[in-house]
Amino acid sequence: MDKSASLPLQFNQTAEFKALTEHFNDIQPVKMNQQFKDDAGRFDQFGLHAAGLNLDFSKNRITSETIQLLTQLARACDLPQSIKGMFNGELINQSEGRPALHTALRNFSAEPVLVDGKNVMPEVQKTLTRMKEFCWSIRSHQWRGFSNKPFTDVVSIGIGGSFLGPKLASEALKPYWSKQINCHYLANIDGSDLTEVLQGLNPETTLFIVQSKSFNTQETLKNALACREWFLNNGGTKEYLARHFSAVTANVPTAIEFGIAPQNIFPMWDWVGGRYSLWSAIGLPLMLAIGYEHFREMLLGAYEMDCHFKEAPLEQNMPVIMGLLGVWYVNFFDAQSHAVLPYDHYLRNLPSHIQQLDMESNGKSVDTYGRALNYQAGPIIWGGVGSNGQHAYHQLLHQGTQFAPCDFILPLTTHNPVDNFHALLASNCFSQSQALMQGKNLQQAQAELKAVGKSDDEIKVIAPQKVIPGNRPSNTLYFDKSTPKAVGALIALYEHKVFVQGQIWGVNSFDQWGVELGKQLGDKVHECLLAEECIGEDMGFDVSTSGLIKAFRSMQDKL
Ligand code: F6P
């Protein structure tokens, strides 16, 4: 019997998808400009508030019917049950047979969270208490370096989720750093990254945290070894390694083998994915910088978003609406990418974190039943801080043939009031989404050119090049201030948005098999780059890889 017949329909085979397709044909020609003219209540109608965040999604290619049809599609994909399943520890990371319980790390309820029948909350709370004590002992100067000086710098050695989340949160919460501990992040297997990070640091007052769930990531292990060499070559001794090196990992034996003192190892669990691990001991560098109380506030913000995600009806559910709007653009408007545009200096690294969160989760082409997708799934995530982007890539957003829905993100107040800067930043943010929606038609372009005295012939040629199509959708997320709570809620919002989309597309958002091949091939290339005698073709490389190896080797020979 054809087993596929008993499997759930892929979402684009459902009646709800068909209804949306028909709806798309009706709505495709509709201009948002006109919708705003026709409905003064549009901003209120398409606005949501949750966990201290506000979402204006009125500048989208939607009507209330669109939202109704999208949420019907979500129900057809069993989203409400999937949300419950994630929080209840179901093995939703099917290919690795694991739950995805990053939400347990910020569970402020008295509810137990069971993994293999065992409540993991005591262990989560014990680890958080250990983190608090560790940070207190360092920030209070009780734990000092080998020359008995207080620590001044912490170097977090990690990559991917062991880097991007903590770095984003550290930078986002820079206003909350105590003046005594500076956070540095070392990720890349690049001597320049290592050199730049260590430059100017004092081994007497530098603490290293090796952040690696697997404790088997090439970049992290190499960097950790190099930092240990640096420490030992600059006054440190093996005896003092225990004072200056700690680790966060799910692989404790290997960390001990590396030379990390057992008492300095903080656990990670296999039911927390790397890109979802900021809330775990991976957040130690952040807690060292901002202190336990502010870290706890960040956890609380994420928890409040979790409660909203669990409890709000789909139609009023912020992560659900953002996720469904993304599906609407990817699968009906053929959007290939999505732009994240924080209008806040401290949130400038948010796009990089969301890139991993989204693209490593939903950058898949096979569903959880092993079926190839015959539809698009995860979009390319890109973006950057505003208003800088307006002088870099907004041209494409406004007039390009490509189409990229945008998330504008703005704290309504700034940590650093200067003159009227924040009003100017906000006006840039609001006017960009307005321009994307409103555009500029040919008549307007012609009138502008006429007004500056251009000839008819000039206007004939230039006016069409000044037309801005408009009708390009965006969300605007805004909140009072970029506080630990707001940052926690914001990151959790995107985690849940990614989950919603993964469920609709039927992919496993919690594994990342795609990164394995590059690592495997890299070992053989590396071997050939350094071997005494190595002729690429003899090692079965394609001629491109062989040519590149030869170029590298010949350059090394010249040094
Ligand atoms: O990119 C692959 C990946 O496994 C990510 O998922 C992870 O965050 C990163 O590498 C680092 O892994 P680890 O924390 O095990 O060193």
Q: Can you tell me about this structure?
A:
- The protein has 559 residues and is α/β, with parallel strands linked by helices.
- It contains 22 helices and 13 strands.
- Strand 10 (337-342), helix 15 (350-362) and strand 11 form a beta-alpha-beta unit.
- The chain starts with 14 loop residues before the first helix and ends with a helix.
- The structure holds 6-O-phosphono-beta-D-fructofuranose (F6P).
- 6-O-phosphono-beta-D-fructofuranose (F6P) is lined by residues 159-162, 212-214, 217, 220, 274-275, 360, 512, 515.
- 6-O-phosphono-beta-D-fructofuranose binds at residues 159-162, 212-214, 217, 220, 274-275, 360, 512, 515.
Mean pLDDT: 96
Measured on Cα atoms, how large is the radius of gyration?
Answer: 26 Å
| Largest sheet descriptor | 6 strands, mixed
Q: Estimate what percentage of residues fall within beta strands.
A: 5-15%
